Amino acid sequence: MLRQLSLFAVLVAVHASGEFIVLHGPDSIEFTVNGEIEQSNLKEILSAALGYTAKEKDSERSIAVWDPFSMPRALVAIAIDGIDQLPFIKDNTKATFPLIADEAEETTWQAIRSRVEERSNDNTLVRINLSDGVDALGQSALGELKPVNMEKLKSLSPDVEEDRKFVEEMQLLHAIADNAFSAKKHDSYTNVYWLVVSSLRLVLDYHGNTSAPAQEAYSLLNDAMEHVSKAFMNTYDGRVIITAFTNDARIMRSARSILERHRRDTPQDEDQDEQKNKMEDGEINRMSSTSESITVVSSTERPGVQENSGTSEMSDEVKEHKTNTNTQTIGQPEFSGRAKTYTENYPVIFNIMLWFGVVFVFSLLAICLAIADMDPGRDSIIYRMTSNRMKKDN
Known about the structure:
The protein is an alpha/beta fold. It has helices spanning 2-14, 42-49, 105-119, 133-136, 161-178, 180-183, 200-207, 212-235, 249-292, 294-331, 345-372, 381-393; strands at 18-24, 29-31, 37-38, 63-65, 74-81, 95-100, 125-129, 139-140, 143-144, 191-197, 240-247. A 7-stranded mixed β-sheet has the order 3-6-1-11-5-10-7, with helices on both faces. It has a two-stranded antiparallel ribbon with strand order 2-4. Helix 1 (2-14) packs antiparallel against helix 9 and helix 9 (249-292) packs antiparallel against helix 10. The chain is elongated, with a radius of gyration of 34 Å.
């Protein structure tokens, strides 16, 4: 009963504990809201939006591709740690999904990065944690980032450490927007920009969620995200996906620990139930054998022990086999069906072979039909060469 209550508490805690918002997307794709999504499935949805093959069918229900020849060329994802809602950007969104935070944002980033690297090694794949500060981000993949001077603050104070860190992150976010054009490469590869905002939670904890500094922080973050969105839209001529999602690590860690504990305890309870059932069956068999005769009991007592020992040995072998099977399954690498090295010549060669095969098949079919309709008596070369000689012989 306690386990069921804890599982129910976890489900309540992780049920739609975040938001995933699409700020911009090209007309070639459309995000369709069909209920809540898990963050572990976010990599499949974003990969499908970039034109990659998704490994899970659930992602197909959240995105529709209208023009496969005009797929996005870049992805900009803004992860906001420590909060579960984004109420300040509701008006400028294309789609809003309730998000279940069952995975860390860095894990999602690593999955998308490996998916893109499988196709090509010349992509721009950037993850910037804005909390690292100006010194750590001075020379990044986006070039030299210089903090942008912001307007005079009203409620946030530079003397408060939490406020100062958040303002620095917003300055860096504006600097990234200013350097968006210089980060673009003149190629057709997919680029991913992963930006992490982690100081907003500090401001909310220090001042409160409904305080004046919190409202000003929301406004500053909204302005910075709009600046980033417009900058990357102009850089890639609208062929870019710009998203934002929340990631509350506190809820995720507590939910994951309880769920793992529940999964770990469930097999043990099942094994205990099986052992109890076997013991009850053995007691019933012994009682039935005792009721028949005392001599039969004395003569079958040793085989019964051997039988029980054999049963335990068989159960141990089965458990060992199950353990080995699980170990092999976990150790096997995931089959992707794609070569490690991928070049842009692959679709060209594939199309050449495909259409050559189609033309060859139809040509062979036409030749076969022509031969089938041919008259071997008058159209063949043998008839033409032998007809005159046959007339002379006659």
